Amino acid sequence: MIKHIVMWNLRGNTPAEKAAAVAQIQRSFESLRGRIPGLLYLELGVDTSCIDYACDVVLYTEFDSQASLDAYASHPEHMRVKDEVADLRIARHQVDYTPTEFSGDKA
Questions:
Q1: Distances (CA, A) of 67 to 14, 58, 71, 74, 91
Q2: Percent over 70 (pLDDT), the chain
Q3: pLDDT digits over 49-72, tens only?
Q4: Can you give the residue range of the structural domain that contains 26?
Q5: Which of 23, 50, 62, 106 lies at a CB distance of 3.0 to 4.6 Å from 41, suitable for a disulfide?
Q6: Residue 59 has what pLDDT?
Q7: Does residue 107 belong to any structural domain of this protein?
Q8: Residue 102 reports pLDDT greater than 90
Q9: What's the CATH number where 93 sits?
């Protein structure tokens, strides 16, 4: 399994503008459910901390393999969503990783 996390800071000078951007991102990514082979899990979260260094939105996804994540990157449905949300963001951060499990023992 590979995990793909993307975080954005959104455009908007008012809470209403940011809320509209969040709603569009939610609609766009929700539309991917069941359309991308190998996409096992998709979750979108909106920041509630309101601290100055926090991102506004996070996308958390799990894929069955690196090959599935690679295919997702150029999948037509994903490309459509990227186009829909591209102008809504001012910054983007990404991490892709294979989970490392640690023992439950505490030192």
A1: 40, 22, 6, 11, 26
A2: 96
A3: 999 999 999 999 999 999 999 999
A4: 2-97
A5: 62
A6: 98
A7: no
A8: no
A9: 3.30.70.100
Can you tell me the distance from the alpha carbon of 56 to that of 63, in angstroms, rounded to the nearest whole number? 23
Query: pLDDT band for position 101 (50/70/90)?
Result: confident
Residue 105 located in a structural domain: no
Tell me which long-range contacts 34-40 makes (C-beta under 8 A, separation of at least 24). Answer: 35/77, 36/68, 36/71, 36/72, 36/75, 36/77, 36/78, 37/68, 37/71, 38/63, 38/64, 38/65, 38/67, 38/68, 38/69, 38/71, 38/72, 39/63, 39/68, 39/72, 40/1, 40/64
With beta carbons less than 8 A apart as the criterion, state whether 11 and 106 touch: no
pTM (global) more than 0.85: yes
Reduce the DSSP state of residue 17 to 3 states and report it.
helix
